[in-house]
Amino acid sequence: MSYIQAEEKEGVVVCTFDREDSSQNVLTEEFFAELEHLLFNGSYYGMPLVFISAKKDFLAGADVERMAGISFKEAKRLVAKAHEVFARLENRATRTVAAIHGQCLGGGLEFALACNMRIATEESRLGLPEVKLGIIPGFGGSQRLPRLIGLSQATQMIVSGHGIDAKKAKRVGLIDETAPSRSMLLERALAAASKLGMPRRKRRMIWLEKFYVIPAAGKKLVQKANPNHYPAPFRALDVLAKSARKSDYQMEQATVCDLLVSSGTQNLIRLFSLTSRAKKKWLDEPRAVKRTAVIGAGAMGSGIAYALSRAGFSVRLIEKDEKKLLSAMQIIQGLYRKDVGRKRLAEHEAKQSFDRISPSSELTIGSADLVIEAVFEDYAAKEKVLKAVEANVSPETIIATNTSSLSVQKLAEMLERPQRFLGMHFFNPVEKMPLVEIVPSELTGEDAAQEVGAVVKRLGKVPVRVKDSPGFIVNRVLATYFFVALCYAREKINPEVADRLMRDYGMPMGPFELADQVGVDILLHAQRSILPRASAKLLEEMVAKNFLGKKTGRGFYDWTSAKRSPNPEMGFNARLPRKTRPRIEKFMRETLEASLTATAEQLAGSGIASAEDIELAMLLGAGFPPFRRLFSSKQAP
Amino acid sequence: MKKVVLVGGVRTPYVKAGGVFKDLTADDLGTLAVRELLHRHNVKGNEVGEVIIGNGAQPAEAANVSRVIALRAGLPKSVSAYTVHRNCASGLQAVADAYDKVALGHADVVVAGGVESMSNVPFLYGKELKNIVAGMMAAKTLSQKAKIMRGMRPRFLKPVIGLLAGFTDPLIGMNMGQTAEFLADTYGLGRKEQDEFALKSHQRAEAAIVSGRLKHEIMSVFLSTENRIIGADIGPRFGQTTEALARLKPAFRKEHGTVTAGNSSQITDGAAAVLVMSEDAAKALGFATDIVIRGYAFAGCEPKIMGLGPVYATQKLLLRLASGGPRAGVKLSDMRFVEINEAFAVQVLACLKVFAKEGMGEIDDDRLNVNGGAIALGHPVGSSGTRIVLTLMNELRLKDVSGPALATLCIGGGQGGAVVIERR
Questions:
Q1: d(CA A318, nearest CA chain B) in Å
Q2: Among the partner residues A322, A355, A358, nearest to B36 by beta-carbon distance
Q3: For residue B292, what are the β-bridge partners?
Q4: pLDDT band of A637, cuts 50, 70, 90
Q5: How far are the Cα atoms of A124, A290, A345 from residue A178, in angstroms, in the given order?
Q6: How many CB pairs (< 8 A) connect A and B?
Q7: Is B410 a catalytic site residue?
Q8: In angstroms, rounded to a whole number, what is the distance separating the alpha carbons of residues A123 and A166?
Q9: How open is the CA angle A398-A318-A475, to the nearest 5 degrees?
Q10: pLDDT of B94-135, one tens digit each?
């Protein structure tokens, strides 16, 4: 067998998952075939089973690559097979123990649920993240989980897709026992498996829970997600509600297949595989970088310092202006406090991470392995800082500039060691945005670029490679988008219109909201450097009037009252004429959409980045809706 | 024995206890100083052989505070760390230990420092309450518990203030202020002389702050919770006057008392750290090797005259240096700068008197405590010893003079400590 090795030990059959030629145990068709074979094996009748993994994680879940482009019929067949095998496992008249360590997610947890006992090491994580891929648990998880841990906890896990740790899993009854370490796991599992009789379970009254759990969860969900764009959690809730009285595996199968073949899910699956493919292009772990320095403690600098310190790097945060430095430290502390408040970090972890940041108003960075310069966007300012940095550090140190609009090549040519220098474009707010554009100049050494890619991965972000060019990927595309949007602003069309259209399209924010958020002055600067020949007159006028957006209280909108309204001094028309409104709105929607898709296609053609990377950058950096297709299928890579 | 050099150092501002540093623990303060020291000197961490931190109050939540500081400051886990305690000279003890380690070749690079958060010296409960709590924890039945609780009295809840307890000598039952009064009586040092000395301390500190000289040894602390940047000591009183000092009431003896809050050291929070290396290591790592540590000595004396500890320790050290050969000897009058920690004005004045009386030589007033002392800057007990060594190093470098310099302080319980460094 190439996936599951079975071996008798003390009257128990120990089945080890160890998929050949792979670092992960993914639930492939082969897995189900071998599992079925095992369950039918006559010599094992009447013997308890223990399932354990030889890899880093227990089971990694369903085969996402296999799910791409799958037909409804094919999906139906696969899911039905899984249900059949899991049902057989569940009905086996002996003890069946899942001995879990590492990650046990999705299909992996659904497998464990079909066993009648679960033991997990203390560091393991368990969860059903299917909704994040646009589907629902499809191997019986939506039926078995609520019956094991109750509807309230199950709904929370399935609808949010968040995993839980072993401690919590024990508390809610998802696992029966924790093992102190991986080396103790098998021993504990064998002991549990060789006990006589079947484990007894408390009966959950989920039909009763239904009446208060489902409406509350539904209410919360409506506030968070749009059912038209993200149907999966709503469908999951629906399945949970309808099968609360009597389990209904057929309904689960039908729902998951239906969702799986939908274009929204297929595109989310695409995002998933794009992300994992993009990460594979870079070094796995940084080889040399341990100590870092960030220069400039503005919004970007402090966000970068937070991300670095949280990922375990020591950070020297340099800023000449002590007041700015203080407020950066306050911002960072605030972010850590939020992490603790939301239970993403334990108190001591946050403290340890915050300790890694050392603020200073002087350029004392000699021992840093990576210096990220994030001073304001101006050649002269950057040149001065970069030269000073270069003179202060060892020749091995990598120097990166965080820029969105300057030429990395031009900066590289000013330096002594351009082979250790590159661009690193973080997005605002750094702590939330998962994308970093890595911009090597023609002089950058590949080892420096790889090292920086590995650092970005360590930050939990996705690195995307792009050649030096105005605006790189995301800002280049957004520049056209803003240009189009500004045309409508010049026509005095209420900014609400374009914002609403683009939100409906699936963007997290409309163009004018985004402009006010970013700052009109920043936007002007970007437009000038990326599209130097396009008129930016409107923006210039706005900057002159100090309509800089949210930060000054007024921009395209008036942000001073609780409910924002269009800035009255911009003279926008209140509404479009009723007769022509549908036509104008359709036209606006199409032009704004085209400004995104056509520019992206043009960039892909120009070769500054691979089409895959451009797509990923648009999804992660520009908020392009993942359920839509950026490239028309003809051009798709 | 290897030559030992002092490479550099830094300290946090010294802030009056109960002030803006009151929420920072001793390990918080130490982390700030050590981390800054490492960054300023481009120390990666692997090269450090030992971390030695002096601390008086020994916080309960950070046992071996040195190790806690070392790890929090970002030093590799493989670097060992220990804490030393010699009361007021704990910070000097750390430097002395570093000297030994390096001289004997047990380490090439040592981080030595002193930390104290006097704001966080805990309140304690007496042994009556302790016996009751321990008894309750051991008791198994309800009747046993009831029996123990019957012995409870409200007065057991009255805390013992740890800070005051620490300032009282357990063997002679005198607190430190009373030992200072004893010296005033013995050497006939009046209130006026003491106040004048205190005034000078404030004036010199003020001048040093205004000139920016102290910036070389002090780092800025960014207090995000308080929304404040602390870049200078909070303790020196600008424009201090004799009249203001004269108005203060004696703190330790109501009648005939001369020692006041104004002519004693302040109760303060702060941390200081220095880098000590072997000459070879410093050269290899590219550091200046101009400052050499010549040696140190500690000496004991009658607890009642603990304020004269510097005399005993200095005498011992000078004799020791003289035994090293005709050219190794140093006289008190050779010292380019002298730091005598100002626990009390009267205690420093008494030391000067005894130095002269014993024929050890006189100390020029303009070489003594040139940037003011603990009366103005404050005396975070475990930290001051490191601070005075750091100040001497900076003064020698800033004024670009070569020659020896002496750092010495008195130690509660009847001891003195002294270190001589020299700029080549």
A1: 11
A2: A358
A3: B5, B422
A4: very low
A5: 9, 34, 22
A6: 52
A7: yes
A8: 7
A9: 65
A10: 999 999 999 999 999 999 999 999 998 888 788 888 888 888
Task: Write down the mean pLDDT value for chain B.
Answer: 93
Sole residue written with tokens 């800070």: B163
Angle between helices A232-242 and A141-149 (to 10 degrees): 60
Residue A634, pLDDT above cutoff 60: no
List of residues 6+ apart from A33 with CB closer than 8 A:
none
Measure CA B347 to chain center.
16
Task: State ipTM.
Answer: 0.88
Active-site choice (A83, A101, A425, A525): A425
Distance CA A64, CA A276 (A): 11
The residue count for chain A: 637
Q: Are strands B4-11 and B268-278 parallel, antiparallel or unpaired?
A: antiparallel
The structure tokens listed for A6 are 């079975």
Main-chain dihedrals φ then ψ at residue A256, nearest 5 degrees: -65, -40
Pairing of strands B337-340, B403-411: parallel
User: A366 to chain B: which residues are within 8 Å by CB?
Assistant: 42
Whether residue A322 and residue B229 make contact (CB cut-off 8 A), yes or no, is yes
DSSP for A434-503, please give it: -EEEEEE-TT--HHHHHHHHHHHHHTT-EEEE--S-TTTTHHHHHHHHHHHHHHHHHTT--HHHHHHHHH
What local confidence, expressed as pLDDT, does residue A529 receive?
87
* Distance between A170 CA and the closest CA of chain B, angstroms: 30
Q: What is the pLDDT of residues B362-413, one digit of tens each?
A: 899 999 999 999 999 999 999 999 999 999 999 999 999 999 999 999 999 9
CB atoms within 10 A of CB B280: 13
Tell me if chain B has a CB within 8 Å of the CB of A323. yes
Is residue A466 within 8 Å of residue A609, measured between CB atoms? yes
SS3 B37: helix
Question: Predicted confidence band at A633 (pLDDT cuts at 50, 70, 90)?
Answer: low
The verdict on whether B379 is a catalytic residue reads yes
Query: For residue B224, which amino acid is it?
Result: S
Give the pair of three-digit tokens for residue B290. 């101009």
CA B244 to chain centre: 27
pLDDT of residue A378: 86
The DSSP code sequence of A403-435 is -SSS-HHHHHHTSS-GGGEEEEEE-SSTTT--E
Q: Cα angle vertex A123, ends A85, B69, to 5°?
A: 165
pLDDT score, position A635: 45
Nearest residue to B86 (alpha-carbon basis) of B64, B56, B63, B65: B56
pLDDT tops 80 at residue B326: no
Q: Which residue has the tokens 């030990």?
A: A9
Chain A hits for B224, CB-CB cut-off 8 Å, are 326, 329-330, 332-333
Residues A311, A309: Cα–Cα separation, whole Å: 5
CA distance B74 to A69: 49
Q: What is the pLDDT of residues B131-157, one digit of tens each?
A: 888 888 888 888 888 888 888 888 888
Closest CA relative to residue A351, chosen from B72, B39, B25: B72
